[in-house]
Design brief:
There is one protein chain. The protein is elongated and about 70 Å long. The strands form four sheets. The protein has a six-stranded mixed sheet with strand order 2-7-6-9-10-4, with no helix packed on it. A five-stranded antiparallel sheet has the order 14-15-11-17-18, with no helix packed on it. Helix content is 0%, strand content 40%. By secondary structure, it is mainly β. It folds into two domains: 11-161, Immunoglobulin-like (Sandwich); 181-310, no CATH class. The protein has strands at 36-38, 42-45, 62-67, 71-72, 79-86, 89-96, 102-107, 118-127, 136-146, 155-161, 181-187, 192-198, 204-205, 225-227, 242-247, 254-263, 269-278, 285-292, 304-310.
Length: 311
């Protein structure tokens, strides 16, 4: 049963009234905290309008959905999705079915010459990296809405949110083995913080010396540790605030772990968490700490000692 409630949208979406909402449903926020963001769309709080997939309820209908890939990397931006809808539709709404607090509405494109009675649509979706802490498959639902605000039957696809902690896409394909060990440093402010690790041989690894490189020509081998990124290098925001040191094969010996504030980037302080993921350990090891602006050293020191971990 459809609700008769309506909402007012900006001029670009003036023809797309949405069922199952009222004026108060329009969020005053930009939706940046949501798991997805449809560029150029209107964010609306509440459940996705329309009837559940497979209900067979008549009305405007999404007839095709084409995803560039079902796998979503942490913080991936501009991930394209294309589709078609019946010509009585004026807009498309989209949301992840089990995450977030609302959905996004965007207008349709032009008529599709190859499919009479249908219109094309396109969306560029930005995915929030924070939701990569809930890796695995999640339903991605679309619904078509006509100019009177009537929503039809929802269409469901699925996407896999890749783990924020490197796992070789194990969360999306269990046949892929995860790394043997990962040291992960995360933090809560836009500062240039570095994970630094001293190996059993005394070598210092950090994002600026990203691999132990014991193979031919100094290239890393399967037993070497490799950094995945230099997050917020030179204070350039990346939306992640995370660095990971990854071993595909099991290391040996004891490793001393540090958090080093390379540049405070104008911030007064940063809180951080170190997590050691060891596939043979019963649970991850975590260490929390804080650094203040005066601790920034431009990489001249090891930083704050956190712990030593022995394999």
């Amino acid at each position: 049963m459809r609700s008769t409630r309506r909402l007012l949208l900006p001029a670009s979406l003036a023809l797309a009234c949405v069922a199952a909402c009222n004026d108060k449903s329009i969020s005053g926020e930009s939706g940046l905290a949501e798991p997805i963001r449809a560029r150029g769309g209107q964010f609306i709080e509440g459940p996705l309008p329309g009837s559940p997939p497979g209900s067979g309820v008549p009305g405007p209908k999404v007839t095709a959905v084409s995803l560039s890939s079902r796998i979503v990397l942490p913080g991936q931006a501009g991930k394209a999705v294309d589709g078609r809808a019946t010509s009585e539709a004026s807009a498309i709404a989209v949301r992840l079915g089990d995450l977030g607090t609302g959905y996004w509405v965007f207008v349709l494109g032009s008529a599709d010459a190859q499919f009479p009675g249908e219109n094309d649509w396109h969306a560029d979706l930005d995915y929030n990296a924070d939701y990569a802490s809930q890796p695995g498959f999640h339903p991605l639902r679309f619904v078509a809405i006509d100019g009177n605000g009537n929503a039809g039957e929802q269409t469901e696809n699925s996407v896999c949110l890749a783990s924020k902690v490197p796992d070789n896409l194990h969360a999306c394909d269990p046949s892929k083995a995860p790394p043997e060990a990962v040291f992960t440093l995360t933090w809560d402010a836009d500062v240039d913080l570095d994970l630094r690790v001293v190996t059993p041989t005394g070598a210092v690894l950090d994002p600026r010396t990203p691999a132990s490189g014991t193979g031919d020509g100094g290239a890393p081998t399967a037993t070497d540790a490799v950094f995945d990124r230099d997050s917020l290098a030179s204070c350039v925001k990346d939306g992640l605030r995370q660095e990971d040191l990854v071993w595909q094969s099991r290391p040996t010996g004891a490793y001393d772990i540090y958090a080093n504030l390379f540049d405070a980037c104008g911030k007064q302080a940063v809180d951080f968490t170190l997590t050691v993921h060891d596939v043979r350990a019963p649970a991850p090891v975590t260490v929390k700490g804080q650094l203040i602006a005066t601790d920034a050293n431009g990489g001249s020191g090891l930083g704050q000692y956190l712990t030593s971990y022995a394999f």
